[in-house]
Amino acid sequence: MTVTKALPATVRSTDTTAKPPGKYRQAFPQYAAVAPFFILFAIFGAFPVLFSIWISFHDWDGIGSMTWVGLQQYSYLLGDPKFWQAIGNTLIIWVLSTVPMLLLALVIANALHNATRFRSFYRIAYFIPNVTSVVAVTLVFGSIFSNNFGLLNAFLQSVGLGKVEWLTQPWGIKIAIATIVTWRWVGYNAIIYLAGLQAISADVYEAAKVDGASSRQVFWRITVPMLRPVILFTAVTSTIGGLQIFTESRVLFGDTNNIGGPGNAGMTIVSYLYQSAFINNQFGYGAAIGWALFILIVLFSIINWRLIGGRDNERIARRAARRAERNIAAQKAAQQEDAEQTTKEAADVH
What we know:
By secondary structure, this protein is mostly helical. It has 15 helices and two strands. It has a domain at 74-313: MetI-like fold. It is 72% helix and 1% strand. A two-stranded antiparallel sheet has the order 1-2. It is extended, with a radius of gyration of 33 Å.
């Protein structure tokens, strides 16, 4: 008789569970969602920047073949008198426009912050110049500063003053361009300052009034120091925009052969870049001017950061040290006064 061993009722099968998807596969939808931005940035942002560095080392007219010249473009740039004239014009226009613009914007923002009626209307009115076409604004101001039929000269002659050649004299040209820039951007900066003012607690102003501080002291001792980060932001952005002025001078003097006006008094760095690259077809030299402008913007941004922003920790430490010195001096003075008073009383008793 043959005995057969029975098989178990259930046979354990081999585990065949699927492997979890990799981390890149899981994140693919997110990468696909943000990919269009990076693709467009690589094509229209990163590639032009890298290509401008490349062509700055070449002599190229935009159509023919490139010729490697190394650092000759930058060497010629340092000795180019027109480039240094453009830098001087740009810096003068920047100072004439940025300093009055930021001061006026701060005053306007303080007035809007304290206004009780028509506050929204004034905000919109001051911001409208920023959204107006810069070409249209420049054409209007060109008629205002016109030498022969300008409204400004008509006003000066009506009050008994002489006519000023605004668009032919070097300083008149710079003042005209700076006025256009100031009028366009003062409202924008005022709205930013107003947002910063609204973030300051009202308890600070109430405490200052209780201590007997005047309006001028409140403005310079409380408002301006607490707006330091906002002022730093507007100073840096105004520096970047002021060193890139182009449209105002380009539209004000429409002559292609004389893009900066009489004597190139209104030729800015960007205007000279435009003239070199797109009029004289010297794209390599134009790229070199662009990178010199980039270095100049970085330099002046750092200067603004050091002058206005500085290091908060160092500034706080200096204030604490000065406060401690004042307290120690006050304590010494009080102790000396008490000692003198005690000596005087002892002498009187004697």
